[in-house]
C-alpha cells in the first residue's frame, strides 16, 4: 500500500553510524505509525559515498516500516540527493532529515503533530543558537542570509535546516518545480502555505567529521544566491553607481583645484589608479553576470540532475499475517511518485 509519509535521508560516507541511526529512526517511526495508524517508509539516498554506505543501507533490517535505498551513480551534491529522494518517495507527505545523527529522530513526533493535529503544511527546524560554531562561520552565515533576502520577494528563514516535513499539498507543489539549479530551503519557502519554525539543537556527530569545508559552503552559497536571488546583480549595480558618483565628485574637485587654487593636475598615478579601479569593477560585474549565465546554460541544456545506479525496496511484513518481502531492482523499475517529472533523472 502507498505510504502516508516518506522519510527521506541523504547519505554521504555515513557507514560508521548508519546501523545505529537506522535503529533509532525505525523505532520512532514505527511507534508513531502504530499510534497514529499511518503507513511510513524510509528512503535512503546514497550520494556517491566513497565508503560502503550504499551496500550497508541496502542490507539494513526492515524494522516495521518499508525501506527504500536509492544509490546515485556518483556524488551529485546534497541538493540532487534531496531531489532524488523526493522523486522516489511513494508517500504523499515527505519528511527530510540528515543521516549523520545531528537531526534527532526524536523530533519526528513533533513534526507529525504539527502536520496532522495542527494543520501546518511546512514545519522546519531552526537552530536555537550557533554558539558552538567558530565566529568566522557565524559571520559568514549572517552575511549570506542578509544577501539572500536582499530584495527577495520571499524571505528565507535564517538558520533553518533541511530537517522539515511537508504536507501532501506542499510536497506536490515542490514536485512541480522543474528547475535544475535548486536551493531546497529557498524552494520550500517560496511555495508558501502555512509554515512554522521549530527550534532545535543539533546533536553532536557520533562518528566522522562534516564534509562541508569552507570552499564547499562557499560554492553552495553562490549556487543559492545565483539560483534564488538577484542580490549579486543588484549589489554590483549599486557598487558601480557608487563608483561612478565618486569618480564624478573627484573630477569636479580636480577642476576646482585647477581653476581656483592653481594646483596642477597629477597625471600618471591618478590615471593608473582610476584604470585599475574601473577595470576591477568591470571584471567583478562580468564575473557575477557569468555566474547567472552559467545557470541559464545549465537550465537550457536540461541534463538530468542525477542518475540512479541501484534501487532497492525492502518491504515490511504485510499487516494481514503476510511474510516480509524484499525486492531489488536495477534501473529504477520501482517507479517514482507519479507526479515526479520523468525528465529530471534517469531513475
TrEMBL record:
CDD domains: DPM1_like_bac (cd04187). Gene3D superfamilies: Spore Coat Polysaccharide Biosynthesis Protein SpsA, Chain A (3.90.550.10). It is a multi-pass membrane protein. Residues 6-163 form the Glycosyltransferase 2-like domain. It is found in: Membrane. One of its GO terms (molecular function) is glycosyltransferase activity. It comes from the Bacteria. Keywords: Glycosyltransferase, Membrane, Transferase, Transmembrane, Transmembrane helix. This is Glycosyltransferase family 2 protein. The chain crosses the membrane at residues 235-256, 268-294. GO terms for cellular component: plasma membrane.
Amino acid at each position: 500500500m502507498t505510504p502516508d509519509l516518506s522519510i527521506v535521508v541523504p547519505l554521504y560516507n555515513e557507514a560508521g553510524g548508519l546501523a545505529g541511526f537506522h535503529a533509532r529512526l525505525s523505532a520512532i517511526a514505527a511507534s508513531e505509525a502504530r499510534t497514529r495508524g499511518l503507513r511510513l517508509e524510509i528512503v535512503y539516498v546514497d550520494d556517491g559515498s566513497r565508503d560502503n554506505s550504499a551496500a550497508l543501507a541496502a542490507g539494513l533490517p526492515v524494522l516495521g516500516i518499508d525501506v527504500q535505498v536509492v544509490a546515485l551513480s556518483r556524488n551529485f551534491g546534497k541538493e540532487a540527493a534531496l531531489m532524488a529522494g523526493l522523486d522516489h518517495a511513494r508517500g504523499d507527505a515527505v519528511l527530510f532529515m540528515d543521516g549523520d545523527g545531528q537531526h534527532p529522530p526524536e523530533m519526528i513526533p513533533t513534526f507529525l503533530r504539527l502536520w496532522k493535529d495542527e494543520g501546518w503544511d511546512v514545519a522546519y527546524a531552526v537552530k536555537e543558537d550557533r554558539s558552538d560554531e567558530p565566529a568566522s562561520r557565524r559571520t559568514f552565515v549572517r552575511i549570506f542570509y542578509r544577501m539572500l533576502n536582499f530584495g527577495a520577494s520571499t524571505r528565507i528563514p535564517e538558520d533553518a535546516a533541511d530537517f522539515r516535513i511537508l504536507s501532501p499539498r506542499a510536497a506536490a507543489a515542490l514536485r512541480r518545480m522543474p528547475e535544475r539549479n535548486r536551493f531546497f530551503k529557498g524552494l520550500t519557502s517560496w511555495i508558501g502555505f502555512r509554515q512554522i519554525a521549530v527550534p532545535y539543537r543539533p546533536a553532536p556527530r557520533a562518528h566522522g567529521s562534516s564534509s562541508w569545508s569552507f570552499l564547499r559552503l562557499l560554492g553552495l552559497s553562490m549556487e543559492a544566491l545565483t539560483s534564488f536571488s538577484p542580490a549579486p546583480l543588484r549589489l554590483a549595480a549599486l557598487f558601480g553607481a557608487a563608483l561612478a558618483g565618486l569618480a564624478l565628485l573627484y573630477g569636479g574637485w580636480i577642476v576646482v583645484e585647477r581653476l581656483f587654487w592653481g594646483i596642477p593636475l597629477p597625471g600618471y598615478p591618478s590615471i593608473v589608479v582610476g584604470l585599475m579601479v574601473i577595470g576591477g569593477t568591470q571584471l567583478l560585474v562580468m564575473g557575477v553576470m557569468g555566474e547567472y549565465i552559467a545557470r541559464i546554460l545549465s537550465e537550457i541544456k536540461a541534463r538530468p540532475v542525477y542518475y540512479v545506479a541501484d534501487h532497492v525496496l525492502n518491504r515490511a511484513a504485510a499487516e494481514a499475517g503476510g511474510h516480509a518481502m524484499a525486492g531489488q531492482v536495477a534501473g529504477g523499475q520501482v517507479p517514482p511518485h507519479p507526479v515526479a517529472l520523468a525528465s529530471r533523472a534517469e531513475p
